[in-house]
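Design a sequence for this backbone.
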């Protein structure tokens, strides 16, 4: 489940839950009360992955990054903030997600995308490279388009969703 690459092994907070079928390789850091669910593949091999606190990455998601090149000397790491819900079968590649975000099932977020805080990305959406998603909005489609501002209930739900997964991961940890 946790594998080293070039001598670097994932670093997890002691409260993190990682399902035994998930595979995490290399330079990955995961914060307090976060969780990684069945069949997630995360490769921190040619850059790094940083996952914040109370963030959940759900079943079948793929997390990767972009290596440094002469045209892009830093490459693109994958950075995920706090209180983020990454839905089932999401692909995140070399992007930056702020805090309190929900990425809907089957969405794809590509290289050098920056997602502001308090955002919902609809299921099945494609966020093409180099796009910035402004804070406080719902984005849907392929390619993604800004649909409308989030309402107060949706904004509140972003933290509730994250907290629900903190509770669930605690239940899983009690079972082991």
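Sequence:
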């Amino acid at each position: 489940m946790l594998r080293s690459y070039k001598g670097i092994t994932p670093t997890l907070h002691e409260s993190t839950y990682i399902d035994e079928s998930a595979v995490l390789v290399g330079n990955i850091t995961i914060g307090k009360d976060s969780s990684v669910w069945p069949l997630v593949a995360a490769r921190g091999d040619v850059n790094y992955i940083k996952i914040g606190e109370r963030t959940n990455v759900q079943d079948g998601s793929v997390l990767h990054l972009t290596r440094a090149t002469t045209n892009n000397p830093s490459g693109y790491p994958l950075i995920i903030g706090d209180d983020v819900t990454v839905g089932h079968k999401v692909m995140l590649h070399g992007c930056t997600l702020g805090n309190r975000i929900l990425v809907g099932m089957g969405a794809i977020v590509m290289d050098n995308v920056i997602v502001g805080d308090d955002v919902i990305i609809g299921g099945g959406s494609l966020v093409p490279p180099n796009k910035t998603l402004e804070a406080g909005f719902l984005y849907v489609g392929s390619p993604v388009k800004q649909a409308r501002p989030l309402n107060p209930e949706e904004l509140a739900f972003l933290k509730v969703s994250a907290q629900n997964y903190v509770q669930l991961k605690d239940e899983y940890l009690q079972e082991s």
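The two ends are 15 Å apart (CA to CA).
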